Amino acid sequence: MIGAPRPVSANHELKRLRQQAIRQLVADSAVSSQREVVDALRAQGFEVTQATVSRDITELGLHKAARANGHLYIVPETVAAPPARVMSDERLRRILADIPVRIGRSGLTLVLTGTPGTASVIAQAIDESTLQEQEGTLAGDNTLLVLFADDDRLDRWLERFQAIAAASASSASSVAASLSR
User: Is 55 helix (H, G, I), strand (E, B) or coil?
Assistant: First the structure.
C-alpha cells in the first residue's frame, strides 16, 4: 500500500536508542575515545562493537574538539557558528579617506594603486564591503587588481566605489580616476 507507514524494525529502533544514548553520553560527560563510548553503552545494556560505535559517531556528526581536559567528542549543536559577516562600507570609507588611491583599467580588470603596503588593507575592506559585483580581488604591495566578469558589473562597481570614496572626508584628493580602455 503506497503511503502507508512501514513498521519500524527492532534493529532500527535499537539503533535509534543507541544513538540517542551516545548523544546523551557525549552531551553529559567528557568522552575522549570510542572505547569509552563502547564501555558506557555496554554498562547501559547495549551490545556494541567499536566498529558500530564508529559508524554511529559518524552518522551523528560528532566531532572531537580541544578542551581543557583534552580532545573530547562534542555534539555539533555545541559548536559555535562563526559570527555572521556584516557587510559595511564604513571601513572602506575610512581607509579611502586616509590612503590616496589611483584607479586604472585594463579590460575587465580595475587596477587600484595606493601607497606602499596598503593594497591588502584596501582589498580586505573591499571584500568586507557591500561591493559584490567583483569576481575577486588580488593584492600585491601597493597595487590591487579587482576582477570582473563583464563590463556592466565593472561599471556598476566603479560607480559605487566612487560614491563610497566621495562619502569619505577627503574624497576629492583620495581617489583619482584615470580610466582608459
Answer: helix
